[in-house]
Structure formats: C-alpha cells, structure tokens
Amino acid sequence: MSQQTFAQLSNGFVYGAMAVLTLAMFAYAAELAFGTRSRVGRGVAALAAQEPRVLVGAEVGAGAPSGDVPVARHLDGDEALRTADPDRQRRADRFGGIAYSLTRLALLLLVLSMICRGLAARRAPWGNMYEFSVASAMVVLLVFVAVARRRPELRYLGTFVVVPVLLTLGAAITFLYVPAGPLVPALKSYWLVIHVAAAIICGGVFSLGGVVTVMYLLQDRWERRGITNSLSRRLPPSDQLDQSAYRLFAFVFPLWTFAIVAGAIWAENAWGRYWNWDPKETWAFITWVVFAGYLHARATAGWSGRKAAVIALLGLSCFIFNYFGVNIWFTGLHSYGGLPNR
Amino acid sequence: MTGGSATGSAELSTQPHEAIRQPGLGPRGFARWAWRQLTSMRVALLLLFLLAVAAVPGSVFPQRGANPGDVLTYLDEHRTLGPWLDRLSMFDVYSAPWFAAIYLLLFISLVGCVLPRSFQHVRAIRSRPPAAPRNLTRFVDHRTFVTDAEPAAVVAAAREALKARWWRVDVTESTVSAEKGYARETGNLLFHIALLFLLVGIAVGALLGTHGSVIVVEGNSFANTLAQYDSFGSGRLAGSDQLPPFSFTLKDFRATYERGGAQDGAPRSFEADLAVRDSPTSQPRLQTVEVNEPLVVAGTKVFLIGHGYAPRITVRDKNGTVVSSTAVPFLPRDGKFTSMGAIKVPDGGPVQFGFRGVFLPTAHLDPVQGGFSTYPAADSPGLLLSLWTGDLGLDTGKPQSVYSLDTSRMKAGPLKSMRVGDVWTLPDGLGSITFDGVSEFASFNIAHDPGKEPAFFAAMTALAGLMLSLFVRRRRLWLRATADGEGRTLVEVAGLAKSEAGGLGRELDELLVRLPAPRPPLPDEEPA
C-alpha cells in the first residue's frame, strides 16, 4: 500500500474510534440509568446497610488493624441490588459489558490508526500535536482497559473516561490536524521516540488519574452528606478511589521525571544546554513540583485526602496547560506543534 | 519526603521526637523553633508551591538568559511597566535572589529532613525486626493451620523460606519476626540526596561552564578564541583565556526543504561540512554537523542551531576601485527566509554611507506590497536596498549591531531592487554596488559544561531512588507456632504492610506452601 493509503486509513481509524466511543458513551450512560434502584431495592439496601459490614477476604484491606481498613461497602450494596431487581440489574450489566467491549474496540482502532500513521510518515507517529493527542487518547483507553480488567468496579468510571477521550480526538482531528509527513530536522532524533513517548504515556495516566480523582472528590462529598445515587452506589468507596488515583500518580511520577531527564539529555545534544528554562521546560518543571507536592501532601497529616486530591488536579491542569497553552501562546524552542502560523 | 509516614504517624516533622518547647526566650530558642519550622513537612510543602509559582513569570516574560533581544524589545514597548518588572528581576527570574531564596530554603529544609531520617534508617536497618505481637489473628492479613510438625521445625522452615526471599528474619523458639522493603526508605533518602548533588552539578556548570555563539559564512573559519565569538558567556570561575585551541572552516552548508504539498517550504535537512583542526598544528579532519548531531572537540560541543543567507556584495568607488567585497550575513525574519541586514561603507567615498537591505531567497517583487519571499531555498534571489548617507555613528563608541543601520544621523537616499549580477551606480559620486551572488551561513552554539556529567548521574540516581521509594513496599510478617501438648502444632501467620498497596495475602499464602504440611482434618474435626 502507498503512504497515501496508509495516511487515509489512519484517519479512517480515528473517525471509526470516535464513532465507537460515542456508542460506548451511550452504553455507559444506559448502564447507569438501568442501575437505578427500584423501591424494593432501596428497602433491601437499607436493611443491608444496618448489618455489620463484612470484610471480604484478606486482599481488600492491607492496612493496619487499627481501623483504617477500607471496607468493601459497595459490595453489600451491589449485592442488595442484584437480589432486589435481578432483571433490571442484568440489563444494566449487559449495557456495561457492551460499553466495555466498545471501549476495547475503540482502543484497537486507535492502535491501528497509530500504526498506519507511522507507516504513512515512516517514523514514530508522535511528531506533532495531532499525533500526540491521538497517542495520548490511546494511552488513556489502554490504561483504563487494563485497570478495569483488574478491578471491574472501576468500569463505572467509563463515561467519565470516554467523554474526555472523545473531546481530545475531536479537537485533534478538527483543530490540530496536519497531514502525515516527515519531520523538521530539529525533531529527527531517537530522543523524540523516547522523550515524547514517555510524555505521551504520562499524559494518558495523568488524565486518567485526574478522572479518578474527580470521582473520588464526588464520592467523598456524597459519603459525607449521606447522599446516594446511581453513580455513588456503583463507584468504589472514596478511600478506594483515592488509593487508585494515588497508584496511578505514583506510577507516573517517576515516568514524568524520566521524561524530563530524557528531554534534558536531548536538549544537551541539540542546543548545547540541558536546561534552558524554555516555557515548555518551565511548565514541565512546575508540573513536576506540583506532583512532588501531591506526594508529600499525602504523607502529611491534615493534607491527605481532599486537599491532596486538589493538588493532583492542579498538577494535571499544569500538564494540560503545558500541552495546549504553551504550544499556542508562548514561543520557545519547543515549537513542534505543527500548528499553522498566525 | 515521599510516602514516609503513611501509616498512623501524625508527626509532621521527621525530626526525632522531643518534648514541645515554647519558642521565644533568647536567640537559641528562636533558632531551634525556626529550624523545626523549616524542616517540617508543612513548610516544605509551602516552599514547593512557592517554587512552582515563582517559576511561572519566567515563562511569561522574555528572559535575558535565553532571548536578550526580546527583553530589549519588551522594555522598549512597555516604558513604564518594563523598568518595574526589571527591578523585580522578572527578566532574570531563574537567577533572581528571590528565586534562589526559595530553592535554597527548600534544600536546607531537605537537608534538615534527610539527615535525621538517614540516622533513623541506619538504626532501623541495624535493629532486629520487632517481636511478634501477642494476638496474630487480630491482623487483617492472617492465616492459621494445624500441623503434626514440631514448632521448632515450623520455625526453621519459615526462617529458611523467608531468608530465601530476602526478608530480614529474627527467630525465637516458637516465633518468627521478619521485615522486608527497607529499600523503600533507602530509595527515598537516595532520591533527596541525589537532588542535592544535582544542584551541585548545576552550580558547577554555572560557575565553570562557557557558552557562546557564532555565525560563520561558507568558506570562512572560526578559531575558538574569545574575540571570534559573536556572543559569549562564561561562569564566574571559568577562565575565558583558556579556551581549547580548536578551529574549523565551514566548507559547505546544505539545507533542503519540502517542495509542494501542505508542508511546502518546511525544512527537511540541514548539514554543515566542517574542516576541523583540534589544535593549530594538527591536520584538518572533515566532519558533517547536523541538528541533533554536534561536533565534539576537546571537551567542547559545537551545535548547528541556525542558518541563513549572506549576499555577496562588492562596493567600488567612483574610479572603479574595489572598496570592499564580502558576504554580508542577513538575519532571517520568517520561515521563508525573508532576511534583514545592513551594509556599511565607512571609507572610500566622499561621505560615509550604508544600505538597509532585505534579502529574498525566492524573490517575489510586488509593486504594491514590496518584496517578499515565497520559498526558503535560494531559487531566484533578490535584494532590496535603500541607500543612506551621513554619519554611520561608528565613532560614537556605542556598540552597534552589524545587522542594522543606525540612521539617526543619516539621510535617506533612493531604493533599488537587485538580482544576482546587477550593478547599481550610486548617485553623488559614491561609486557602485554589485550583487555578486549568494552564500549561506550557519550559526553555531559552542558550549562547554563540566557540570553536566555530575548532573546526569545525580538525575539518574534520583530517578532510581524515586522508583524504589514508590514501588517497594515495606512490610512485616510474624509467625507463631504453639504446641498443644497432644503432638499437634497450631501455626499462626500474620502480615502488616507499612506502606500503601496490598498484596500481602498472596505472600502469606506463598509462605504457607513452604511450611510443613497442614494436618488433614479428622472426620470428627471442624475444618480449620
């Protein structure tokens, strides 16, 4: 096949992924809608809530016996739901399964799109903002699918993962699109593959961590106010969401450190100075410092929980600003965006 | 500190705990109070955020270190605000005293935190794992079973199994205490100490490093002496008279661009062929320098960072005698390489004169819009010159840019657009100017940073430490084997994770497999 054909195929796969994700979004919404509790369900759940909570296996709580053990609260709620209205529940489950399968299909399409893009341009397919966005969307879906496979209760985050991914892809294909082609000489380096790939993975995991953090803040608020709704019942309890978000951020922080160090090595090799305080570098540094603050906050009494979550969201905002804001408003050495000059 | 006191401890400082003393009374008390404040996690957090906020203006305002020209332009455009921003070091944010104050306080806080923690950690490594608590079944992660083996055999088997898996083990007759994952705190401390060394590496580079830039036209040479640099900066302790004596000649420069399509004119490759001499006496060697592929010579790196055009100009006086014949570099202003420059003729005419020039590699001369370039390659070069006569201002002692003409004491003359080969006979007996052709120039950054290797190793160590501190789990495990007097042994095993993340249950199960087999329950017994 010619490079032209691959380029067209790649675009086709992105549009396909967007269509599939749109369907997935409706399926996730339907799952939540059908998961609404019937009157009987509410009664049974109320009964279940009065019973002492049962620890489900040793795997759930790894904490000390001092009482900071996360209790699998949602499980008895879910159990109640299942016994209360099995038919409705089965339908919700079916939609959930469909949504998850569609998400995996979209992931596959994005992977194919990136492969075709790489074949069309004959290089690593992350050389400009369009490709970076598509790759980040792919990473978000990949990490979400991997996490949801291990912890099925996190599948309920689906809607809140799929919507930002759809928006990212939409923005990529409408505002950021550039045809597949070779790179400017400044980007011709194997460090592009290493440094930018690390940054893309970080972008994906930071974003997913952000989604989990927002869900944590909501769930925490609902728990404190005693509010239950169809989402709060399905989401894991707030402490588990907090833990999941922490694991994502703790995984990605060293990778972000690596991305910055790799960038510094590349900079030394291309410009003669490993750190130039270029706007891109400055904001990468700010993002790093804010997430370092997040990790410290979690270890500081009075700062863990909601305050730490807000810091994490601040860090994510810095990352996003570094991606969009710095590329669009600031001029610097990192002008790789491929955006049309204005 | 990352991940430190996740379980239980509400202590903010990592200082060894002391009775709280009231501050006040005397400078010692105040110093102690200030030190405890500075080394507390809360203040470290505050300083981290201050550092993040303080870094922001450097991305908003132009910085002298990176773009001194942009700073001048900014000051020119903001006559009232500019000087105030300058007084607040907004154009030198990263060398500003207030920025230094924040990161130095942060590093002092870090030292105050890391030192006591290192001592604590060494003590923890040298001490034994804590004795088994009385009631092991209280723990969330616990297992019990009954076996026919002797308690001593169970303890010995557990000891072997745990040692094989790198646990630190301490045994009594009937109990086993084990702990694992000290690397978490080791990594944590390593990370923070490595950051200190990173700062040292950066400081070494700033004090001993040199960096400069130079523009070299094809056919010309550069020798690594201070006088030949267009701009040069060096650290306070760097001897600028001791530059390594290499030199190079730019034999050829080649640039290629995309032709046609959506990315028409986008650069595709830059190559500079250099004849390099490591010392004035050595034989030249040929090397091609590209973007991302610098020349390394005598511990110094030469980077190709830009390029442009230098029209070859010959000026003759009214008798036809050559006054000057050189390639004059013009600075590119856009992606199509519309370039600006100046030609100065101080001698050889009745008055001083000069030209302001615009060079267009692919010239499109429009009677209304003037001239502009439609492609970056020199496909059909054109030169637009405007003549100025009067005082060039070269004798005022004020430094002048070679790329622009100070016309404050000059009179505008006629304009002329020229193609290669054109001769323009100047009015008033000034002579003539010939556009002979076009050379290319390459601009190079030449940098020597003795701190980059230390900084690199510090960064790698920090990264390794960070991964240990985030991915290693610290956990404890206990086993108690009690004989029941009837030849059976009750075995209890429990685990406790000291840091976040679970997975202890699986470890307990793996241990059980390596212990003496459980006694099969008799028909009349309850299963264990």
Tell me what the structure shows.
The complex is a heterodimer of chains A (342) and B (528). With 342 residues, chain A is mostly helical. Chain A has one domain. In chain A, 74% of the residues lie in helices and 0% in strands. Chain A has twelve helices and no strands. Chain A has helices at residues 3-34, 39-50, 57-60, 73-84, 86-121, 129-150, 158-174, 190-225, 230-234, 238-270, 279-298, 306-329. In chain A, helix 1 (3-34) packs antiparallel against helix 5 (86-121), helix 1 (3-34) packs antiparallel against helix 7 (158-174) and helix 8 (190-225) packs antiparallel against helix 10 (238-270). The radius of gyration of chain A is 22 Å and the shape is flat. Chain B starts with 25 loop residues before the first helix and ends in a 15-residue tail after the last helix. In chain B, strands 4, 6, 10, 11, 12, 20 and 21 form a seven-stranded antiparallel beta sheet that branches. A five-stranded antiparallel beta sheet of chain B has the order 1-23-22-3-2, with helices on one face. A five-stranded antiparallel beta sheet of chain B has the order 13-14-15-18-19, with no helix packed on it. In chain B, a hairpin with a 7-residue loop joins strand 14 (339-345) and strand 15 (353-360). Chain B folds into four domains: 26-125, no CATH class; 132-180 and 473-513, TATA-Binding Protein, CATH 3.30.310; 206-307 and 445-459, no CATH class; 308-441, no CATH class. Mean pLDDT of chain B is 85; it is low at 1-19. Chain B has 528 residues and is an alpha+beta fold. Classes of the chains: A mainly alpha (342), B alpha+beta (528). At the A-B interface, helix 3, helix 10 and helix 11 of A face helix 2, helix 3, strand 8, strand 11 and strand 21 of B.
